[in-house]
């Protein structure tokens, strides 16, 4: 083959190869194109790519989500005043590091301002000036900032603004959703408290815990979409705020009780103390407290006592039990108040029952057994009834059974009843363990003419979203253990405990109304499990009373365990320091207070005198100023305390203390003033002041004695 033909063949082969390659490439392009078309068709019809839903993700791209926090419900007192409510609180801290600055602008507290800062901070938190100043001057100079423990936490916006008003750099606050307890120590173990974790508030004790679900409500969620906002709104869920809980507590009486308890705690230092004030005809608890207690706002004192002593602790009630022994004996026909027996001691098997006066009073009547608080007399009554009948009455009065208090776990109590001596001991309140709330239930049988009522503190729950009202507690009959005649006879004996020359309750007498009581002194079992503690202070001292005794409105029980001192007063006067003023206030004031409007007293400390007067008079309060200084340093009624309109607030200025015009003042107001001025007071008459021996404007000396005349004109 010549060269020309060979070249032609090669050219033809090359053309053929190129055509083949072109066809292959074309086929590849067509396949790829087909794949793309199929893929696009699949995506168009299914809206999915690699298991991702394009429709959903596109919607999410244009959709925003916002969590809606439900507002926690409020806990109210009987008059609709908040006891616990949702709020924003603040934690105080102070920046000390000189690194906290930007250019010439500083954000730390300078050394030259630390004294002023300590003065401002100590005024508004529960820490003394020296302690604050020490914290502001730490040994470690590299510390960036300092905090102030529980005292610097849970501060209100009002307190925050007052501290900020000083204009000191370096003082800062962290905000958090929280719970406001405006009254501090206020039936704390009943109301309870909350904890906040990751901005979620949870009830930890008391009502806050028991009704946590109802108080919390349900959080919502809000969706918004720039493309299809209507569809987003359809998926949104509105937050359902928590329900509000209403209690039967009266803030005026509760506040008074807390103040009396705190004063008694400081003076007598008991290891434990309880007090309960209840409406005699309904079972409503209007004031209740215990010591140790805690401030629900600051949590100070919480570690001292977790238990609710009213519901969970049992103890031998002592001679208060004689109320029910005597009632059972009268009701069962085994009582003759005029019959005599030999007091002092009584042999039962191998053991002896002794009166507190071991030599006894000779032969006395059974009426006197109650009045003088004779153990032997009660043991004789138990013997007359017989062990089976007496045990039946113990159970009829509701002992050994929990109350229907609807406040969580309760103790049922216990009894030792196998031997004759134990059976006799129960008649005077030993060998049986009860709770304070069981005693209150049983006392209603006496106060309510034989009809025993369940005590209650929770009134109702109101759903703010639906306005639905759920009744929690109401007047409920527990039983009818005794007759009306028996109840009246027992009340008559309780009155004689106060009025009889031999009565153990003479310290509880009132000039304004007749009161009936039964005192108690119960031994405390030794920790060894056998015998009782010795010593004059190792007892549970108690008093149960009601007034007015002919037709009781209130029942009050007070008990103190192991006081460290009687402060030279004796056990009866120790308990009377709480019982007498609280019962007097309840009888004389509660009805009026409940009918009239109240206001939360403003904090006017630090204001100039004219501003403070104007601020309080604008609230409808009566203002009296002690001294002629320019600024107010203290006020007689604490800030945020609910006070009836026209109630008196005494303001003390920074100048010398001078006597105000007392004309028209109540005895209570004069007593408050006397406490402020540290004056001894002598009262003549009753009603309101119409004359005073120290003239208005006179500078006061603590050695002065104030004499006032009162009348009802």
From TrEMBL:
Function recorded in the entry: A transpeptidase that forms peptide cross-links between adjacent glycan strands in cell wall peptidoglycan (PG). Part of the divisome machinery that synthesizes the septal cross wall. Beta-lactams inactivate the PBPs by acylating an essential serine residue in the active site of these proteins.
GO cellular component: plasma membrane
Protein's cellular compartments: Cell membrane
Name the UniProt record assigns to this protein: Penicillin binding protein 2B
Biological process terms in GO annotation: cell division; cell wall organization; peptidoglycan biosynthetic process; regulation of cell shape; response to antibiotic
GO molecular function: penicillin binding
Source organism per UniProt: Ligilactobacillus equi DSM 15833 = JCM 10991
PROSITE patterns: PASTA
Keyword Protein transport appears in the UniProt entry: no
Family: Belongs to the transpeptidase family.
Keywords assigned: Antibiotic resistance, Cell cycle, Cell division, Cell membrane, Cell shape, Cell wall biogenesis/degradation, Membrane, Peptidoglycan synthesis, Repeat, Transmembrane, Transmembrane helix
Protein topology in the membrane: Single-pass membrane protein
InterPro entries per record: Beta-lactam/transpept, Beta-lactam/transpept-like, PASTA_dom, PBP_dimer, PBP_dimer_sf, PCN-bd_Tpept
Domain PASTA: 595-655, 657-712
Domain of life according to the entry: Bacteria
Chief localisation class: membrane
Residue ranges of the TM segments: 21-42
């Amino acid at each position: 083959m010549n060269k020309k033909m060979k070249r032609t063949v090669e050219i033809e082969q090359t053309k053929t190869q190129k055509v083949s390659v072109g066809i292959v490439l074309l086929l590849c392009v067509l396949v790829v194109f087909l794949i793309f078309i199929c893929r696009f068709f699949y995506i168009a019809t299914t809206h999915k790519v690699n298991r991702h839903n394009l429709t959903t993700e596109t919607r999410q791209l244009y959709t925003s989500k916002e969590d809606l926090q439900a507002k926690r419900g409020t806990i109210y007192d009987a008059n609709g005043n908040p006891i616990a409510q949702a709020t924003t609180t603040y934690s105080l801290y102070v920046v000390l590091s000189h690194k906290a600055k930007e250019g010439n602008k500083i954000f730390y507290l300078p050394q030259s301002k630390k004294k002023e800062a300590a003065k401002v901070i100590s005024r508004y938190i529960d820490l003394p000036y020296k302690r604050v100043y020490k914290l502001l001057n730490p040994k470690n100079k590299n510390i960036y900032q300092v905090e102030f423990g529980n005292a610097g936490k849970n501060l209100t916006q009002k307190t925050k603004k007052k501290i900020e008003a000083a204009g000191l750099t370096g003082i800062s606050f962290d905000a958090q959703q929280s719970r406001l307890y405006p009254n501090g120590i206020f039936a704390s173990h009943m109301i309870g408290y909350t904890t906040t974790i990751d901005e979620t508030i949870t009830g930890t004790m008391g009502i806050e815990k028991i009704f946590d679900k109802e108080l919390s409500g349900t959080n919502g969620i809000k969706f918004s979409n720039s493309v299809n906002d209507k569809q987003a709104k359809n998926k949104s869920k509105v937050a359902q705020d928590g329900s509000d809980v209403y209690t039967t507590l009266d803030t005026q009486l509760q506040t008074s009780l807390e103040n009396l308890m705190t004063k008694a705690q400081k003076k007598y230092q008991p290891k434990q103390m309880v007090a309960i004030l209840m409406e005699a005809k309904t079972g409503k608890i209007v004031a209740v407290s215990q010591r140790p207690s805690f401030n629900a706002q600051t949590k100070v004192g919480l570690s001292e006592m977790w238990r609710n002593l009213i519901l969970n602790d049992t103890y031998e009630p002592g001679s208060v039990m004689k109320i029910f022994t005597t009632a059972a004996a009268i009701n069962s026909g085994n009582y003759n108040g005029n019959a005599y027996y030999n007091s002092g001691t009584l042999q039962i098997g191998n053991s002896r029952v002794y009166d507190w006066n071991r030599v006894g009073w000779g032969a006395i009547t059974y009426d006197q057994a109650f009045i003088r608080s004779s153990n032997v007399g009660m043991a004789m009554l138990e013997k007359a009834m017989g062990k089976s009948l007496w045990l039946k009455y113990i159970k009829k009065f509701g002992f050994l059974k929990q109350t229907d208090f609807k406040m969580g776990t309760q103790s049922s109590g216990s009894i030792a009843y196998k031997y004759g001596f134990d059976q006799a001991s129960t008649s005077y309140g030993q060998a049986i363990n009860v709770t304070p709330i069981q005693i209150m239930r049983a006392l209603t049988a006496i106060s309510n003419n034989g009809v025993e009522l369940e005590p209650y503190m929770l009134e109702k729950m109101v759903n703010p979203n639906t306005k639905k009202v759920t009744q929690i507690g109401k007047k409920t009959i527990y039983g009818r253990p005794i007759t009306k005649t028996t109840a009246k006879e027992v009340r008559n004996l309780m009155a004689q405990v106060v009025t009889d020359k031999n009565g153990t309750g003479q310290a509880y007498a009132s000039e304004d109304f007749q009161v009936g009581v039964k005192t108690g002194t119960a031994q405390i079992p030794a920790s060894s499990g056998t015998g009782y503690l010795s010593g004059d202070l190792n007892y549970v001292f108690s008093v149960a009373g009601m007034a007015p005794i002919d037709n009781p409105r209130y029942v009050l029980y007070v008990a103190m365990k192991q006081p460290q001192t009687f402060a030279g007063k004796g056990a009866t006067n120790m308990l009377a320091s709480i019982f007498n003023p609280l019962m007097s206030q309840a009888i004389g004031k509660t009805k009026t207070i409940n009918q009239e409007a109240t206001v939360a007293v403003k904090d006017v400390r630090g204001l100039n005198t004219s501003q403070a007067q104007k601020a309080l008079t604008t609230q409808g309060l009566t203002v009296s100023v002690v001294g002629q200084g320019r600024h107010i340093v203290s006020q007689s009624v604490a800030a945020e305390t609910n006070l009836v309109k026209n109630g008196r607030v005494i303001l003390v200025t920074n100048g010398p203390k001078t006597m105000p015009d007392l004309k028209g003042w109540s005895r209570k107001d004069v007593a408050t003033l006397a406490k402020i001025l540290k004056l001894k007071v002598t009262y003549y008459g009753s009603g309101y002041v119409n004359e005073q021996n120290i003239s208005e404007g006179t500078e006061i000396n603590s050695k002065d004695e104030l004499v006032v005349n009162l009348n009802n004109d």
